Amino acid sequence: MDIELSDGLSFNIFKECSISAPVIFTTAYDEYWQEAFEVNSIDYLLKPIRQEKLENAINKYKKLEKHFSTNHSAFFYRASETNGYRRRLLIKKGTDLISIKTDDIAYCYAAHKMAFIVDENAQKYITDKSLSDLEKDLDQAVFFRINRQYLVNIHHIKRIRTLAKSKLLLELSPPAQEEVIISQENVAAFKEWAGK
Q1: How many domains is the chain built from?
Q2: What is the pLDDT of residues 124-142, one digit of tens each?
Q3: Cα separation, 170 vs 194, whole angstroms
Q4: Which of 83, 99, 125 is the endpoint of a domain?
């Protein structure tokens, strides 16, 4: 954007319109640089404009664009990680619907092509969601998919025992009806998650 136009200074545009795009200002005068950076300026080029200065200004814009688009996506990802998980699940029990706080879920497991939720009081509920869907709904800082059958809450792991071939055996609270084993392939990821 040139600063001195035939009908006045281009800064007047910013008073009339809301402009959010970054601007590279060009002018033959060096007295406007401060005002330029008070609006949307990312660079201030003095005429006659040298090719090298113009290329540097455009590269600066590209770096800023990349930086902010990357950071925005990372921010939204982190926001969904922190706040996007469900705080409650609606579960059908008989003819009733009940709301369960996800904090109260001890673990979830799959059996007979169905998924079950077990709460901290050992109450078991059938859900119409798959274990994979539950994994997406629940906070991954708290819940970990240890194998194909189990998704566990870290606060309900009572004991971790080592087994042969680098496997781990989890003792859950309330207790599961079968042995809950972390396969050798998942042990490293589990240890990293549990140690955070």
Answers
A1: 2
A2: 999 988 999 999 999 999 9
A3: 12
A4: 83
